Amino acid sequence: MTQGRPPNETKWANRSFQVLMVVENVSRDLTLEAPWMPTKWVLTDGSREWTDDYAWQWVLVGHDPHAQPSLPPGAKAEWTWMAAPVPSGAWVKRVEYHDPWGNLYSQELPSPPGGQVNFVDCGDPQDGTC
Q1: Structural domains counted in the chain
Q2: Residue 71: which domain range?
Q3: Residue 124 included in any domain
Q4: pTM value?
Q5: Residue 44, domain member (yes or no)
Q6: pLDDT tens string for the chain (130 positions)?
Q7: Is the Cβ–Cβ distance between 110 and 117 less than 8 Å?
């Protein structure tokens, strides 16, 4: 995966977590400027927690990220974001979004039941197993 905005790094990930973020600007006079995205992913393996603050998006190889709209008062839009990489045996426990006006929105996510996740370990990107 290659980051389409700073720090513009490339990372290998064989597991990710995807969310559809729906935002409605309920302000009467303020525009929510793009980009708006999850601020923090809280991940866990059941015994420890850690955070990641980069939200990935699907981008065609060799292209820039899609232009996300700014949201004027009353506007509503949705965008798909991903946490990656998510290590084997771990999951996203919570997604947080801090808006520019200081509000925190947080969504807790349950541990996935055993057998619900279809996961194939693709190994290192150079070995070509997937």
Answers
A1: 1
A2: 17-108
A3: no
A4: 0.82
A5: yes
A6: 778 778 888 888 888 899 999 999 999 999 999 999 999 999 998 889 999 999 998 887 777 888 899 999 999 999 999 999 998 888 999 999 999 999 999 999 887 776 555 455 555 555 545 4
A7: no
